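so my prof wants the structure for this chain in the tokens format not the other one, which i didnt know existed until like an hour ago. anyway here's the sequence
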Amino acid sequence: MITEFNRFERFLRIDRITSKSELMRARAVYIIGLAFVATQIINQLTMLYSYGGLTFDHAISVIACILVLVTIFFLRITKRFQIYAAIFSVLIILATMSSALNQNTGINSALLPFLVLGIVVNGFICGWRATSVFGVSCLIIVWALWWVSSNYSYTPVFDVEKFTDRNFQRAVQASLATVLITMVGAFFSKNMHEAFGDLEAGIIEAQNSDRAKTDFLATMSHELCTPMNGIIGMNDILEETDLNEDQRELTTIIRDSGRDLQTIIGNVLLFSQLEAGRVILDDSPFDLRTTLTAAMKPYAALAATKGIVCTTRFAPTVPAMLIGDKVRTAQIINALLDNAVKFTDAGAIELSVHGGADAQGRAALLLVVTDTGIGIAPEDSIRIFDRFTQQDGSIKRRHGGTGLGLTLARGLAEHMGGELNVRSDLGTGSSFTVRLQYDVAGAEQNAWKVAAE
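here's what i got, hopefully its the right format
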């Protein structure tokens, strides 16, 4: 059902509306219109049962439905909502008139629901001003109907002497109800649209603030890289001098801490670049096996200290030479391997690559990192990709980290036109799958084309 409504809104070009207020107005137009058509279908069936056949009322109902459907269709062409409110108001007024003047019965009980409907329609689509105008118009119509009905020469339903008094009282009651409903409708309509306006202004302000924060992070991270590189470089030079054991231990601490900080700064810088859409992808030939094997080595050494076995496996159909961004590919795998080693205390970690090339020289690959670690609860499988997020505070205290690794991995994968998904159960390990596409490089591309043919 939701998919059908999405298709319907794409047909009406409502999906292009960015303002929440305008989106609400557009939806009010077609939802109210479709609801009207649905009620008329029921009305036609009951009239067919009551009258024993098709009547002039059926034709009027069909014409009204066609007019409403045409009105909804015009949402494709224009989003001037005053037009739709005016059309619906005219239909409501005509329905009120036909109900009130039917068989010279004057103002009957069917009048008020139509007036309420008109006030609600104008309130949703246009706002409190349209609601007020419609309410004043309804008052004029009520007393015009009273004047007309009070001059009837006969009435087949009521006693003539009592009809005038009853009709006047109905006009008074309808007027009081209309005034009350208009005031309430205008009040809620005004507050509703103002709330939407404030909400949109708040969203824009938050987006601007988030963008400014991202720009600040990008600038500051870049500025921090230069002195950090200087510190690490000077420490490397210092380590090459004649140092005693205590001094060498201190320089080792400086080196390790500096590189950890450098990694954090690099992650924050990459995150801010992704947020700002400033990540530029490289399209150069690279050897996938060499790249991923090199990415695995430092993590395999770290895992070995915990007694964890790390393996790398490539399907025979995976091309060796690809055209794409080598650095970003390695960064994605680094983030997944770092996560796997961090949260695995026993067992194994495997990096496997599957897929192959098609006749057009495009390689669709699956890069899978599987571990036997603590796993992820189903309710956390989406949240772990949120920035600065880990499964819970106790894990963060135990393992540390900024909580940006998986966020960066998914952001890079999506920026490269792919996706990153996870399959996991708590206590049984995790499997992260990256789907990426590359061009096959050079002579190997021609070989794959020949093989495909």
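also thought this was worth mentioning. The chain has 13 helices and seven strands.
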